[in-house]
Amino acid sequence: MTEGGIDLGELCARLGFSEIPEVLEAAETPVRRGHHLALLAGEGSGKASVVGLAVLEGCDPTEEALQALVLVPEAGHAW
Q1: Residue 49 and residue 53: Cα distance in Å, rounded?
Q2: Distance (Å, rounded) from C-alpha 12 to C-alpha 24?
Q3: CB burial class (10 A; 0-12, 13-18, 19+) of residue 58?
Q4: Are 24 and 1 a contacting pair, CB within 8 Å?
Q5: What is the pLDDT of residues 13-40, one digit of tens each?
């Protein structure tokens, strides 16, 4: 599904997924609408990709300034 400017298939390929994670597919519409989410899914489910989508949706590619800061609770979630 492509809604807005980011193609989920391309985003997932760049993140190393062979297919769009179910959790990302389910969260796509609320994220693109600017809704806040609480996700409960297992390790390796793609929850962090939802954060990536939300960050990318909020950034302006023409703006040459810092637009996002992602704080992670552990090194395993650092990109």
Answers
A1: 6
A2: 9
A3: exposed
A4: no
A5: 887 888 888 888 888 888 888 888 888 8
Question: pTM for this one?
Answer: 0.65
Q: What SS3 string covers the chain?
A: CEECCEEHHHHHHHHCCCCCCHHHHHHHHHHHCCCCCCCCCCCCCCHHHHHHHHHHHCCCCCCCCCCCCCCCCCHHHCC
Q: Six-digit token pair at 59?
A: 């950034």
Name the amino acid, one letter, at 16.
Answer: G
Question: What's the gap between Cα 6 and its chain centre?
Answer: 10
Q: Are 27 and 50 in contact (CB under 8 A)?
A: yes
**Residue whose token pair is 């994670």:** 21
